[in-house]
Known about the structure:
Elements (H helix, E strand, L loop, with lengths): L6 H25 L3 H24 L1
Amino acid sequence: MRDLQSTRAMWLKGWLFLLIALMSAAILLVENWSWRTALLLALCVCGGDSAARITSRSM
């Protein structure tokens, strides 16, 4: 498979990824609402972001 070259396609892919992430979080919170679930979800999002920054710097 070739690398993604189109700027428009990259933006579309990013927005679709964000949409999927937001919908997944919303479904999780609607089905199992509690402050604990919301906190754990926030920790997963923030922790994943920090891990991505650390690994991208080491490359």
